[in-house]
Specification:
Layout (H helix, E strand, L loop, with lengths): L1 H12 L26 E7 L29 E3 L5 E4 L3 E4 L5 H12 L7 E6 L3 E6 L5 E4 L5 E2 H7 L7 E12 L2 E7 L13 E2 L4 E6 L1 H30 L2
Parallel strand pairs: 6-12
Antiparallel strand pairs: 1-2, 1-5, 3-4, 6-7, 8-11, 9-10, 9-12
């Protein structure tokens, strides 16, 4: 009986149990974040002629630009509710719905009308994810690389506690104002090929409690009340029979 219980428990807490049965991927899975409203972007235009890029690389404060030095304090761009940014010289440019490489190409074509063979360096500055529930360190985490897997996100949160339900993680994702919900079982390796293996900016991962934690939360308060009542009755009895 003990052996059966041990095997059953292991099946509930071990990650990627069937990964050895899956063929190795010949190609590395590629992932690029899709730009969306409220993304804060850093966009730096480069050229063989640095002076020609000045109108496109506006500083946060006018008059604070020095050619030849690092471009620190360059203006940032927030994608508005229409999915657009207001880019210098060019004006309104719609970037929401594009992956980063597509946005780079679009801006390069537009800037090419003013600068010969420009370079575009675009980054999302406010890429973050949140991990809540039965993890050691729940919270919101800023991501510098613009790419993070579900397992890496759980690692940042200190991994699941023993009370986390590994077969039922909930991922909440918003795309173009529409929220999507996906249940993920990390005890199985199949989720590696899922669109939710890589997290998108602003994804929320919720780790639900398992039955042990749920039962404890129900029993705990009642047990406390019972013990408190017994203690009070015992105190009264002692006072009465002194």
């Amino acid at each position: 009986m003990a052996a059966l219980t041990s095997c059953s428990s292991g099946a509930k807490i071990t990650y990627l149990q069937n990964v050895d049965a899956k063929p190795s991927e010949e190609k590395t899975l590629k992932y690029e974040p899709v730009l969306q409203p409220d993304d804060l972007l850093s966009i730096i235009v480069s050229s063989q002629n640095p002076e020609s890029t000045i109108p496109f690389n506006l500083p946060l404060i006018q008059g604070n630009y020095d050619i030849g030095k690092n471009q620190i304090g360059i203006k940032t761009y927030l994608i508005d509710n229409e999915g657009e940014i207001d880019f210098p010289v060019i004006g309104k440019v719609k970037l929401a719905g594009l992956v980063r490489s597509e946005a780079n190409k679009k801006l390069k074509v537009l800037v090419s009308e003013y600068i010969k063979n420009p370079g575009i360096n675009l980054r999302i500055l406010n890429f973050k994810i949140s991990v809540l529930g039965e993890v050691s360190r729940p919270g919101t985490f800023s991501i510098d690389t613009e790419r993070i897997t579900l397992l890496e996100a759980l690692g940042k949160a200190g991994d699941l506690t023993i009370y986390g339900k590994r077969s039922d993680l909930l991922i909440i994702r918003e795309n173009n104002g529409v929220k999507k919900y996906q249940r993920v079982d990390i005890t199985k390796a199949d989720f590696i090929n899922s669109p939710f293996y890589y997290l998108s900016q602003n994804d929320v991962v919720v780790v639900n409690p398992n039955k042990t934690k749920i039962n404890a939360s129900v029993v705990g308060p009642n047990t406390t009340v019972i013990l408190s009542s017994i203690s009070i009755l015992a105190t009264i009895a002692v006072l009465l029979f002194r």
